[in-house]
């Protein structure tokens, strides 16, 4: 249960709290990302978590940061507790395997979404206007159809509890300048393309993903946050894929089916039964093993 406590590191200043991850100040140059075992569905965080989820998704992010290091630099310093400062090591028992020491960046306030398939809010906009993020797409696309090429479809970073708003890539140019915007969109597409091809060959479709970027102390564009986890991306089982309908989630379908079957109101957090927790954990392990070829450390 330790991974669900209010603050895992009381001596460190909590500076950001997401649905399932927390971010702490460590010193002038570094921050600590802590992945909890919390799980959310339909934008609601459940009352109990998935024991081990935080460790698995942290290790998956580390795998992708290393695989994609030739595409661009990341903010990752280490996930190895022995390499972390004493202020973090004091929490070794709770945090081992589910925290990342990262470089402090000047974060670019854009959700850098890349879509390989049209689904979710992109499909909703396409049905209404034939566009995604105001980018015109060919007529006649089916739900969940693969796009001709991965598409950079940015959104704003909404306040907690609000929904991100899809914006046209030109809006990003107005926000951060054309040169940086073009570098950022190309970097996002390059990262997604390499990861999606790698995962597809191992039975997982990464339909879309959200990257965050920042500038380091030398002004170098750097990939931040977590990358290419089932929390930041849509993972679909490739062997069940078919365009023209919604796809099962690789990792959350047991959870979603249980919630729908139990009349979930999509507002009130509930307690998950043991079998849903067990089956959901197994899917996170399955995704990790397929992608990395190794068992996660739990
Ligand atoms: C817990 C969820 O909160 C966030 O990820 C949002 N966030 C990220 C930063 C950040 N700030 C400086 N340097 C970084 N490397 C990062 C990163 N990543 C701040 N808020």
TrEMBL record:
PROSITE patterns: SAICAR_SYNTHETASE_2. It comes from the Eukaryota. InterPro entries: SAICAR_synt/ADE2_N (IPR028923), SAICAR_synth (IPR001636), SAICAR_synthetase_CS (IPR018236). Its EC number is 6.3.2.6. GO terms for molecular function: ATP binding; phosphoribosylaminoimidazolesuccinocarboxamide synthase activity. GO terms for biological process: 'de novo' IMP biosynthetic process. SUPFAM superfamilies: SAICAR synthase-like (SSF56104). It is an enzyme of class 6 (ligase). Keywords: ATP-binding, Ligase, Nucleotide-binding, Purine biosynthesis. One of its GO terms (cellular component) is cytoplasm. Residues 15-266 form the SAICAR synthetase/ADE2 N-terminal domain. Pathway: Purine metabolism; IMP biosynthesis via de novo pathway; 5-amino-1-(5-phospho-D-ribosyl)imidazole-4-carboxamide from 5-amino-1-(5-phospho-D-ribosyl)imidazole-4-carboxylate: step 1/2. HAMAP family: SAICAR_synth (MF_00137). NCBIfam families: PRK13961.1, purC. Belongs to the SAICAR synthetase family. This is Phosphoribosylaminoimidazole-succinocarboxamide synthase. It comes from Thamnocephalis sphaerospora.
């Amino acid at each position: 249960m330790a991974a669900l406590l209010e603050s895992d590191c009381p001596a460190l200043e909590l500076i950001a709290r997401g649905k399932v991850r927390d971010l702490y100040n460590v010193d002038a140059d570094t921050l600590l990302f802590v992945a909890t075992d919390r799980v959310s569905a339909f934008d609601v965080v459940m009352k109990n978590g998935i024991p081990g989820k935080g460790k698995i998704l942290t290790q998956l992010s580390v795998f992708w940061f290393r695989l994609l290091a030739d595409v661009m630099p990341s903010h990752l310093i280490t996930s190895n507790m022995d390499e972390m400062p004493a202020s973090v090591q004091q929490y070794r028992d709770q945090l081992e395997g589910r925290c990342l020491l990262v470089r402090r960046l000047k974060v670019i306030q854009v959700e850098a979404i890349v879509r390989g398939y049209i689904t979710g809010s992109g499909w909703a906009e396409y049905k209404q206007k034939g566009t995604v993020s105001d980018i015109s797409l060919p007529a006649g696309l089916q739900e969940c159809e693969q796009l001709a090429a991965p598409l950079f479809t940015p959104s704003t970073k909404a306040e907690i509890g609000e929904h991100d708003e899809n914006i046209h890539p030109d809006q990003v140019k107005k926000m951060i300048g054309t040169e940086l915007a073009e570098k950022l969109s190309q970097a996002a597409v390059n990262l997604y393309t390499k990861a999606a091809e790698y995962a597809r060959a191992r039975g997982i479709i990464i339909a879309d993903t959200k990257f965050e970027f920042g500038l380091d102390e030398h002004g170098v564009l750097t990939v931040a946050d977590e990358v290419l986890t089932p929390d930041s991306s849509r993972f679909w089982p490739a062997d069940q894929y078919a365009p023209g309908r919604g796809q099962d989630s690789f990792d959350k379908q047991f959870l979603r089916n249980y919630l729908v079957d139990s009349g979930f109101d999509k507002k009130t957090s509930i307690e998950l039964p043991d079998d849903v927790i067990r089956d959901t954990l197994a899917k996170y392990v399955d995704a990790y093993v397929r992608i990395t070829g190794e068992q996660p450390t739990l």
